[in-house]
Amino acid sequence: MILQHLLTVAADLLYAVRTSGQEVDQALPRYFQDHARFGSRDRAAVADIVYNCLRHLRSLGYALGQPERPDWHLTKAESRTRVAAWMLLSGAWQSKEVRAALDPSVDHLPELCTTIPPPAVAADLPDWLYDSLTTVLGEGEVGSLAAALHQQAPLDLRVNTLRTTRSEVIRILHEDGIEAVPSPFSPVGVRLSARVSLGEHDLYRHGGIEIQDEGSQLIALLLAPRRHEVVVDFCAGAGGKTLHLGAMMDDTGSLYAFDSASRRLDQLRVRVERAGLRKVRIARVDALDARSILALCGKADRVLVDAPCSGTGTLRRNPDIKWRSHDLAALTAEQQRILDAAATLVRPGGRLVYATCSFLREENEAVVAHFLAEHPEFVAISPLSMTKRFGIACECPEDAPAMRLYPHRHGTDGFYAALLERV
After folding, report:
1. Is 357 a catalytic residue?
2. Does domain 3-117 have CATH number 3.90.1010.10?
3. Across the strands, what pairs with 192?
């Protein structure tokens, strides 16, 4: 692809993501599906530019002297100059070539500013998120986290122990020329050194592996379901954690997967069949409608609440999330209602895990603290067993013992998980 065309396509996609509300991991595949003439190298080059422009959206604007807007939207001209600025700053293209690829009648690319930007700009975070992360980690560590968020996430796999073993998966991948090693913490995790397409690989097609971040695997491990128990995945989504729970239970007992979106549950049905699970009961349930789950009230041994959240813990994969507006008040109110409803299912002596893929205390410690204040029949359990088993450093504030995972500390997405027991 010639440089001028590469710049135009990347700028058009960046503009579309920032103005239409499309998520970048959905917008790019759709675009390439509609433009099948692009080869794999062209697709990779465009995706790399768009993702990096989203990761560095604020610092690129600072370098260009472009004004910031509350909604972080870009004009078409701003999209083009930010793509051009990234091309220059990345060092992959010559300045003369990049400037020649611009249309002088439309584009104006000034000399880039080289002064040291303010901390939030250097971290490429909006002020609200930078301030929130500073309260969680301290100003010194936010820079390390921000640097990790600018890196591409590794490709992690979870081995389906109903089908195969981790050592066998690694052996097969090596034979196929794919470098793979055991993941650092999860006993069923495999980490690949490069991103490869596995959709047509026999291991995937026959249910031996699933693509799942190691942090997500650790949440199921924290819930620790046992054989023949009654277990509920309350916000199952497409079911990555459901499949893991089913394998941990050896496909025994009763495993319920609830979600309010039929489309996600349809995906889960396909994945359940591929994984060889027979004990999973899938149902479309409004998590806030207690009438639909009355039969399970007080009967579940384990309940997982993977709550809908801001998704800030997944910024390595979805950098566009940080430039969106988030109604945290509405989100946390929904999280509290979902947690209240899920708690009614837990039997005395049973356990519940409340989890998010968010860094924000408002969605994590604050929600759990509010729940415990309203539900004296529940207590928080320190997840120190995770530290002993896997060497994971846990944060345990007095009001809410919890497991916290960070990209710069653990190499996973950002996760929070609190373990609660009904006494």
Report:
1. yes
2. no
3. 155, 180
